[in-house]
Write a structure and sequence with these properties.
Pfam families: SCP2 (PF02036). By secondary structure, the protein is α+β, with helices and mostly antiparallel strands. The chain has five helices and five strands, in the order αββββααβαα.
């Protein structure tokens, strides 16, 4: 699965109910691919290619780690502890990804 396809799947598995009242930007710096960001605004989710001017949190990983997390094979917290995933900005928001997207 390409990185583009992974992000399309993520967008399709968005849980709008969990995002009511939220205004966040999740940026994904994929080390062996491109940078993407997801804008979550009051129950909507929009995927954009490229960096955002002011992301709420930036997650840095390679495409293999991204695929594992989105497929549910890799636990995001374990990837973080193992150094496969780094976060900049509001790190607590990274824990919300599991609520906002149906992984696996």
């Amino acid at each position: 699965m390409s990185v583009d396809q992974i992000f399309e799947k993520l967008e399709q598995n968005f849980n709008a109910d969990a995002a009511q009242g939220l205004d966040l930007v999740f940026q994904f710096d994929i080390e062996d691919d491109k940078t993407y960001h997801l804008v979550i605004n009051d129950g909507t989710c929009k995927l954009h290619e490229g960096p955002h001017d002011d992301p709420s949190v930036t997650l840095i990983m390679n495409s293999e780690t991204l695929q594992g997390i989105v497929s549910g094979e890799t636990d995001g917290m374990q990837a973080f502890m193992a150094g496969q995933l780094r976060a900049e900005g509001d790190m607590m928001l990274a824990t919300k990804l599991g609520e906002l997207f149906n992984m696996g």
